[in-house]
Amino acid sequence: MKHNFDIEKSYDEIREKYETYLRDYGVRMLSLCTGNRYTMSALVLVYFYNHIGEVVSKEELTTYLRDMGYPTNDVQSARHLAQQSGWYIISGQRGDVECKERNVGPGEYMLLTVEKPYPLYTKLKRDGDLKANDWEELKARYGFRCATCGSKEGESNYHYRSTITKLNKGHKDPSKPLTLDNTIPQCEFCNKASRNYFIFDNKGRVDRIYDPNFIMRSDEEIRKLMLKILIEDNLNEAKKILSELGNNEIED
User: Fold this and answer.
1) String of b and e for 54-92 (b: at least 16 CB within 10 Å)?
2) How many domains is the chain partitioned into structurally?
3) How do residues 41-91 score in pLDDT, each as one tens digit?
């Protein structure tokens, strides 16, 4: 093994922190083992814990998991640990606002703390809220097509012709559970591209922004324009925020 930390001891420390700081926020504590094998998600969390405050690349995680006997080419656990389980792991690919000051780039992650949850974690119920029959009925309402791009299930994707379309359960509003009235069918590409940035309408069109991190993906001029609009509409609140950041002399 190439790691120099005790997995069980690290997991016990994480669980203790979880019970003290995170349980009340609904953060999901991961099982360490399934049968006599470690779970991949728990291994990734333990790795982050032992590199807390450090930049961790997807390549590092892949190598670590392979050393642990889990051959994988695409580690998704790091991304899911934040948005689906609530752990405060920032992602350069997702463009979390903390990434710039922490120098976390695309394909890189960082666990900031185990004493606070990921800020945009909303305790979403990703599984079990939508019954199988309801899901099939919902897909039928949309003609078994992606609500966003129109690609039909079982046929070539409109934008990726070599790929057969598979429909995923997409959130209309990421702040709410995955229930029948809050779900639209989306192909895996449209569902992945949204990354919980947006709130969608029934036709799969973007209605408004959900995750403010999306703004940071815009060009500098657009970000400045957005800032100007927000300040003009919320001048008093802007002054308060700047004051809290240490700027006590704010001119009108």
Assistant:
1) ebbbbebbbebbeebebeeeebebbbbbbbbbbbbbbbb
2) 3
3) 999 999 999 999 999 999 999 999 988 888 776 677 777 898 788 999 999
Query: Do both 105 and 195 map to the same domain?
Result: no
Let me know whether 185 and 160 are in one domain. Answer: yes
What is the tens place of the pLDDT at every residue in 129-185? 577 788 999 999 999 999 999 999 999 999 999 999 999 999 898 878 888 889 999
236 in the same domain as 172: no
Q: Can you tell me the mean pLDDT for 37-44?
A: 92
Q: Which of 117, 150, 173 is the last residue of a domain?
A: 117
Same domain, 194 and 226: no
Least confident of 6-10, 36-40, 52-56: 36-40
pTM of the model: 0.57
Residue 141 CB neighbours (<10 A): 11
